[in-house]
Design a protein that fits this description.
Two copies of one chain form a homodimer. Chain A has 578 residues and is an alpha+beta fold. Helix content of chain A is 35%, strand content 17%. Chain A has an eight-stranded antiparallel sheet with strand order 1-14-11-13-12-16-17-15, with helices on both faces. The first copy, chain A, has a five-stranded antiparallel sheet with strand order 6-7-10-8-9. In chain A, strand 16 and strand 17 form a beta hairpin. In chain A, helix 14 packs across helix 17. The longest helix of chain A is centred in the N-terminal third of the chain and has 18 residues. Chains A, B: Keywords: FAD, Flavoprotein, Oxidoreductase. Chains A, B: This is D-2-hydroxyglutarate dehydrogenase. Chains A, B: Its EC number is 1.1.99.39. Chains A, B: InterPro entries: FAD-bd_oxidored_4_C, FAD-bd_PCMH, FAD-bd_PCMH-like_sf, FAD-bd_PCMH_sub1, FAD-bd_PCMH_sub2, FAD-linked_Oxase-like_C, FAD-oxidored/transferase_4, Oxid_FAD_bind_N.
Chain lengths: 578, 578
């Protein structure tokens, strides 16, 4: 590391004495000696700060137990029982944008009778036919408290055969159903709209097999993602997907919504990693596609129809998934860039130079970082207080600590010399790495604390992505704080517009403009959240009519009575677009 | 590398002086000093041998220009024009097993009229409506000369709109069609069975766009894979798939057959890397799913229906695909293992220890290697003549020459010390790497030269995979040479049974046993070759009736008259299995 030292811009100190081992800042006016003690831009209290980070992380886990952040295996119910629900509601019970959906109940659906209840008790037993109001209240509400159904019944099947019997009966009786996993979705996809029967998958939570030679895991759909991660960790493997909601979300729900998450840039989408599914169709037929083979070209690969169809074509009951071996060397750098073009160039360089060890490339703009610094407790900017326009988080994952570190350092030095990075820090341990990640992952929480927020999850060509943020700022002027962050490596922008209070005039300035702009640039109006109820009628912004018509035909073929998760995913009428 | 040297088992020499820089053999009786000159187990002529390898490679490129091996961009037609066709036929015109398919022409299809020809000339112009007998002879025959159709017409559209017009017309006239790319398939999927109109995609061969930031390539379906590889190479990227047929096969065909190939273990299947498709349906409707986004959760992801459906649901006209950055450091080791269990354990170790740089893990048994050594010119076993039961080829691809090399060497040393490897060599340059690869890739060619061959492409759980080879040997006794090789990392076994001549009694001993055995172990009867005509009726060995019924319903929905690639993929009757 002689070359790095020679720049005179790096700090190195013992992790126990202070926080940031190494600083990259060729432009800093403070040329800082390479010592453990001597650096002077507001980091005098790092140790305490990091303690606060840790305290904060625990707090965060509790506060957001319903949704997008891990909470160490707690279910929503655990939180309620511990009296945490009200606190959660205070923070989250706000309006999150998007024009209200006006939906009429489909009159072809039956309403629940006492005979139905008796029938279900006959199949599932008393305790798995839930009519308790408190439990139904949770099942009827999404974690953002934006959507609220009025279901009177929640069923908890324990086997595929029970799911099959439930659906066969509901189909014959024209009873609409909502499959529900961890209920962590953001688009109203996993809660009833009216009185649909909730089919809760939580009790189907067994690991069926794991093959260490091939890395193939077979499990039931109700397994909580975090539990699978822990199970695999003990075997020396990891799940190919990871997301903030892992403590609540279930693998069946992940697959039904084609969850993206933090590892997509490295391990690809679920369409690539899911090897097989068992699915129950609307009429109760069990479709056994539960292969455990990496290669199988025998006919149409039907499982893909169910990945990302949000429970509207069938209920996923079992899953076979390819899991990568666990790699032990993780490095995280938090960097500042002067402009968006530098972020893009840095991404290209990182793909080429870090190659096989690059595992995340996230970005946030200065307004996003400001929100995190202003609204979350105990968070500190690891960089000096100079204002930078953009921040990038790079993570590498590999199998050799020393080599990976050297490689990342060499890359950062090169990028710094080339002017792509204005400043930066490299985490020295997992606590620091977590703290850096929290600067990026804390943005949604900070936004929710800041006021009303209009949230958009968009995919766009990387080079156009930030233009939308700029245009939105011009459009809204001082009336709103427009924030951009997301998975730059995946071309996924989380556009968030924060205002003190929710109002329809602001919304009218945002929508449909945001969808039209995205559509005009061939983007996706839902990169990873799905369409659910929120965007079912907006599908035409991202998909041509002919394609939507074919989706509708497939839905009709597989679920002629439309009992599976009605009012979601597909538009309520296709005629106006024909 | 002190540790390696300390074993006293390694050879090192200058590549110009001799061939194999480094040998690993802790069990060898010849303890060989680490010098450039002193090693003595039959490698005195290495330089000449490698020269021969190179000569041979050139020869191979010519001989197999029709099919599975690259031929540097030559088309089948080029080969014919250069008088090479007869030579190719002499080698390949043998019987390749599988019970003959008895198919009746579907009487609902029309026969071609002069009005039809006039109509097509009106759309495509004279020269792209081909009736020339010589060209039709090529289009009517698969590269193995096993299947032969009698089409009288080949159409060469240049645009999606032309494909649309052709299909709209054919659908209205009930004229059956066969989409044809490079015609390199092994299961009779890309040639007419009777008089179907051939729709040749070769003229739709333009690269539409390439985005260096995201690595996303958009191109027409008729682009030859090798041309795309070359194009990307100049941009610092690679295709996520590579296969022997790259010199002839087209990306549209690759996608329609869900080609696996050599990079699957590293970059995953096309379901993960293909981001978008444009497809023309049987009725001429153009389905625009040509997204260029890594994430897009807006409705059902319909493109997956067309990946691997062998042209029976629509004709792929354009492709959007994610391409990884090119990594410059490639290492190849050729290793010997005592038993199949060691191969499996080595795979597990390699996944864990080589982690992110592992890019291939292939195996062949001693009978496969013997065939290569006995039937291909100028090939030498880089290992001493001790008989080993199994051979493994490991390839790593990374971004750092020195590090990757050290990592692989450390891994090999560890595996050797643990007894997993009996012997091994590490390639010192690309020529040696190619020569090692040829020991594995040359097996199909050697089999064809050895006599009649019954070929099976199977996916099986890795731990069971070789049991089938053993059982087949017991079953056939001395009457046949049973050979096993394939992509161990993908669980893909190429089971080949070589006999001096083809005869029905041998076949009856092999089939249906091989399919029943595969089915009983939940394997796939076609890992990567597809079903085509050859295995359409055998789909039930790998897929349950309910799943096949759903496939049939989808086929009926998208192609009610069944004009697209008839008699292929799906069984000719489903009733007997209902």
């Amino acid at each position: 590391m002689e070359k790095l030292r020679a720049t005179g811009r790096f700090l190195r100190y013992s992790p126990r004495k202070s926080l940031f081992d190494r600083r990259l800042n060729p432009n800093s006016e403070n040329s800082i000696p390479n010592s453990a003690s001597g650096y002077g831009h507001g980091f005098g209290e790092q140790c305490r700060d990091f303690q606060l980070y840790n305290d904060h992380n625990r707090k965060r886990n509790v506060q957001t137990c319903f949704g997008f952040y891990g909470h160490q295996g707690k279910t929503a119910r655990d939180c309620i029982e511990k009296g945490l629900l009200e606190d959660t509601r205070r923070i989250q019970h706000r309006c999150f944008g998007s024009l209200a959906e006006k939906v009429q109940r489909d009159p072809s659906f039956s309403t629940l009778s006492s005979d139905d209840i008796s029938y279900f008790k006959g199949i599932l037993g008393e305790k798995n036919v839930v009519q308790d109001e408190e439990r139904l209240a949770i099942a009827n509400t999404d974690w953002m408290h934006k959507y609220k159904g009025s279901s009177k019944l929640l069923l908890q099947p324990q086997t595929t055969e029970e799911v099959s019997q439930i659906l066969k009966y509901c189909n014959s009786r024209s009873l609409a159903v909502v499959p529900q996993g961890g209920n962590t979705g953001l688009v109203g996809g996993s809660v009833p709209v009216f009185d649909e029967v909730v089919i809760n998958m939580s009790l189907m939570n067994n690991v069926i097999s794991f093959d260490k030679v091939s890395g193939i895991l077979v499990c039931e759909a109700g397994c909580i993602l975090e539990n699978l991660i822990t199970f695999l960790d003990n075997q020396g493997f990891i799940m190919p997907l990871d997301l903030g909601a892992k403590g609540s979300c279930q693998i069946g729900g992940n697959i039904s919504t084609n969850a993206g998450g933090l590892r997509l840039v490295r391990y690809g989408s679920l369409h690539g990693t899911v090897l097989g599914l068992e699915v129950v169709l609307a009429n109760g037929d069990i479709l056994d596609m539960l292969g455990t083979l990496r290669k199988d070209n025998t006919g149409y690969d039907l499982k893909h129809l169910f990945i990302g169809s949000e429970g509207s074509l069938g209920i996923v009951t079992k899953v076979s998934i390819l899991t990568p071996p666990k790699l032990f060397s993780v490095n995280v750098a938090f960097l500042a860039c002067q402009d968006y073009f530098s972020c893009q160039k840095l991404l290209v360089e990182a793909k080429g130079k870090l190659g096989e060890i690059l595992s995340a490339f996230e970005f946030l703009d200065s307004k996003a970082l400001d929100l995190v610094l202003n609204h979350l407790d105990g968070v500190r900017n690891p960089l000096p207080p100079t204002i930078h326009n953009f921040y990038v988080l790079i993570e590498t994952t590999g199998s050799d600590e020393t080599y990976d570190r050297q490689k990342l350092e060499a890359f950062l030095l090169h990028a710094m010399e080339g002017g792509l990075i204005s400043d930066g820090v490299l985490a020295q341990d997992m606590n620091q790495a977590s703290a850096f990640w929290y600067l990026r992952e804390g943005v949604p929480e900070a936004l929710m604390k800041a006021g009303a927020v209009y949230k958009y999850d968009l995919s766009l060509p990387v080079e156009k992505m930030y233009d939308l943020v700029d245009e939105m700022r011009t459009r809204l002027g001082d009336s709103a704080n427009v924030v951009g962050y997301g998975h730059l490596g995946d071309g996924n922008l989380h556009l968030n517009i924060s205002t003190p209070q929710y109002d329809d005039r602001t919304l009218a300035q945002i929508e449909p403009f945001v969808y039209e702009w995205t559509s005009a640039h061939r983007g996706s109006i839902s990169a990873e959240h799905g369409l659910g109820l929120m965007k079912a009628n907006k599908i035409f912004y991202s998909k041509p009519t002919a394609t939507v018509k074919l989706m509708t035909s497939i839905k009709k073929m597989l679920d002629p009575k439309g009992i599976l998760n009605p009012y979601k995913v597909l538009p309520h009428s296709i005629d106006s677009h024909s």
